[in-house]
Inverse folding.
């Protein structure tokens, strides 16, 4: 069995009672069956409390005031203290380690929902690399596992990493290039992927693509700055789905008599749609909804959002590595999962959308602070975001559904947001 993990993996050590947002609160902890058997058979002075603390019917550890009942006043675990570390269930032993399972391969990441992991990752200025080791185990054979597709996904992800870590290009160009490549992959047959990989491996080709994005953005803004929002959304949906230009199906974007809007309003509405999508999901903490509500109020109050965001990007110029680390994190966690549903393009958009959400919320916070946004605030935003999205299957499923179905996640809208600071 091969295990792959990021180079900062061994830097992590739980800071226990010093953590500002303990992992023992807010979530329901579901022990594995082996641990449940251990709890039932445990003997000793701690046995009575242990038995009363487990909901065996629902296979959960009981909670008190939204926290695990074993969490004591010192923010330490009484189960660990009284019964030993071997009594911790798999969830508690592993977290914040996250495992993605593939045939004869395990990819291990550290979840940024942990404040200490977020701190390690966002303070890392060097490019992330990945290490591996082989552990002897029985060979696995997954039924219907598409090894050819999996190999191609690995190759394309490596190229994504290379592009995203090319710091000679602006971060906006890097993100846009990966979005464009994944879109093209979606329109190629699997056996044609090699041609596309070879193209995007050429730095000269990437530079040409970058220039096209600049021209695309300027043309896009000048041509559609007077479109109504309704017509704009129909147009990009039309472009993305390649509707035929027949007379009966042609969308008239020239003679619209509807209310005109400017590019600021288009971008503002995209931001609002993104934040409202987050608001429509389930929340672990009311404070998260408060963050989203304040962000909506802030975004709605901006008249020249296009220029304001460019100022924010300039403010964050020396900290672009934070966004680089985050997009690598999201891709390393989710992209290879496309092997089970053959949705590589969706996984790139999903990873990019997560990053854009964090950037938009950071932008709102910067404005709220009088154009100031500290590293500590970024760290808190990232682990709070991750807890709300990545630790809810309902939210992950809803997010992926939105990516597939809503116009503001198509290539044109995501490119517009990704390149607006150029």
């Amino acid at each position: 069995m091969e295990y792959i993990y990021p180079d900062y993996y061994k830097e992590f050590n739980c800071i226990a009672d010093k953590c500002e947002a303990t992992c023992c609160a807010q979530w329901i902890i579901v022990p594995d069956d082996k641990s449940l058997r251990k709890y039932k058979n445990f003997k000793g002075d701690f046995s009575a409390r242990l038995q009363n603390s487990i909901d065996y019917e629902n296979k959960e550890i009981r909670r008190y005031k939204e926290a695990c009942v074993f969490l004591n006043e010192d923010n330490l675990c009484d189960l660990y203290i009284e019964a030993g570390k071997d009594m911790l269930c798999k969830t508690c032993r592993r977290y914040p380690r996250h495992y993605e399972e593939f045939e004869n391969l395990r990819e291990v990441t550290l979840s940024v929902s942990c404040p200490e992991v977020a701190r390690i990752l966002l303070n890392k200025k060097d490019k992330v690399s990945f290490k591996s080791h082989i552990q002897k185990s029985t060979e696995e054979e997954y039924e219907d596992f598409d090894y050819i597709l999996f190999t191609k996904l690995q190759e394309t992800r490596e190229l994504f990493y290379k592009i995203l870590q090319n710091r000679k290009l602006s971060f906006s160009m890097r993100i846009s290039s990966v979005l464009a490549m994944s879109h093209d992959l979606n329109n190629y047959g699997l056996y044609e992927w090699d041609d596309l990989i070879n193209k995007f491996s050429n730095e000269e080709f990437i530079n040409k693509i970058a220039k096209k994005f600049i021209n695309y953005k300027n043309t896009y803004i000048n041509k559609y700055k007077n479109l109504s929002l309704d017509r704009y959304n129909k147009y990009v949906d039309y472009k993305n789905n390649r509707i035929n230009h027949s007379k009966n199906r042609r969308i008239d974007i020239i003679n619209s008599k509807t209310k005109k809007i400017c590019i600021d309003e288009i971008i503002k509405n995209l931001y609002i749609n993104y934040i409202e999508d987050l608001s429509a999901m389930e929340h672990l903490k009311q404070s998260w909804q408060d963050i989203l509500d304040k962000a909506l109020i802030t975004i709605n109050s901006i008249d020249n959002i296009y220029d304001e965001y460019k100022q924010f990007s300039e403010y964050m110029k020396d900290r672009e590595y934070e966004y680089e680390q985050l997009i690598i994190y999201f891709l390393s966690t989710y992209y290879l999962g496309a092997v089970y549903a053959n949705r590589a393009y969706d996984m790139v958009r999903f990873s990019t959308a997560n990053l854009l959400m964090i950037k938009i919320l950071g932008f709102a916070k910067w404005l709220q602070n009088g154009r100031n946004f500290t590293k500590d605030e970024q760290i808190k935003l990232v682990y709070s975001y991750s807890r709300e999205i990545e630790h809810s299957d309902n939210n992950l499923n809803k997010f992926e559904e939105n990516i597939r179905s809503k116009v503001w996640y198509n290539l044109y809208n995501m490119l517009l947001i990704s390149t607006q600071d150029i």
The radius of gyration is 24 Å. The CA atoms of residues 122 and 322 lie 5 Å apart. Residues 243-260 have pLDDT under 50 and may be disordered.
